[in-house]
Amino acid sequence: MKQIIIILGLILFILTSCNKNKTEIKNMKDKLPIGYYLKKADNLLTEGINNFHRELDITRIDWQILNSINENSEIDRQKISELLSEFSTGETINEAVTILLHKQLIREEKYFSLTEKGAKLYQTCFQKQNAFRQKAMKNVTQQQYLQTIETLEKIIANLE
Length: 160
Prior knowledge:
Structural class: mainly alpha
Order of helices and strands: HHHHHHEEHH
Radius of gyration: 19 Å
Largest sheet: 2 strands, antiparallel
Mean pLDDT: 86
CATH class: Mainly Alpha
């Protein structure tokens, strides 16, 4: 969820940043509400990600599980459920884990780990994710990105 918020924030910042001169302020009045841009960005991001996940025969939650296992050497079912609770229910996460075990992409002992097959799939998907992120972030500076994140964090804090 944070990845989506970060990317949406970046897009929000790009769409709304300006030099604050009178012409640009006037043009801001012609913009649609923020929700439109957030929804549009979310739809485009989701569609793009779903397309390459479909090519790899995994779901978005499968990817999140594989990524969580790759990033955490000591991760069990409870920790995966906690990490991914913003994305899905515990039941859906457990079902996805069962499928990944059946496909022999992960193994479960005390902690989860990627199998050789799972590690290869992870690397392929990670490369596609990076290419997609680069496309989304084209012509966006680090400063613009950080400002967008800070703005979205404030909006989220205001609404929570």
